[in-house]
Design brief:
It is a single chain. This protein is mainly β and 105 residues long. 4% of the residues lie in helices and 51% in strands. The protein has one helix and five strands, in the order ββαβββ. Strands 1-2-3-4-5 form a five-stranded antiparallel beta sheet, with no helix packed on it. The protein is elongated and about 65 Å long. It starts with a strand and ends with a strand.
C-alpha cells in the first residue's frame, strides 16, 4: 500500500473460493412444454457445489481518524470452475465486476 496525505492506495490479487448455497434459473417455455409441467419447473440438479476464481482489483482508503477509515475499490473476479454441468459440453463460469465500499474501524 502507498500512502499520500490521508489516502492509502492498494492493489489486490488472489484466488477466491466459493460454496454454492442456492441455485435457481429462468427458462423459456414453449407451448408444447406446458403439457409436461414437471419438466418446466424441474430443480437445477447439476450445479457444482464449489467454485474458484481469480480476483484482481484495487482501491483507495481515506483515514477519517486514528482507527477509522473509509474504503472503496473496483474488483474483477474471473471464475475458473464450470458451475453447471448438464452434459452438453458447455462451460458456464461466474465472472463479475464489483464495487466495494466500506468503513474500517
Amino acid at each position: 500500500a502507498t500512502e499520500l496525505n490521508y489516502f492509502t492506495f492498494f492493489g489486490q490479487i488472489g484466488v477466491v473460493p466459493g460454496v454454492n448455497i442456492r441455485a435457481r434459473g429462468d427458462r423459456d417455455v414453449t407451448p408444447n412444454q406446458l403439457l409436461f409441467p414437471d419438466r418446466v419447473n424441474a430443480k437445477l440438479t447439476n450445479v457444482n457445489l464449489l467454485n474458484f476464481g481469480l480476483e484482481v482489483g484495487g482501491g483507495v482508503r481515506y483515514a477519517l481518524g486514528e482507527n477509522l477509515a473509509l474504503s472503496g475499490g473496483l474488483f474483477y473476479r474471473n471464475g475458473f470452475a464450470n458451475v453447471y454441468n448438464d452434459g452438453d459440453g458447455d462451460k458456464i463460469t461466474l465472472n463479475h465486476l464489483a464495487l466495494q465500499v466500506g468503513i474500517f474501524f
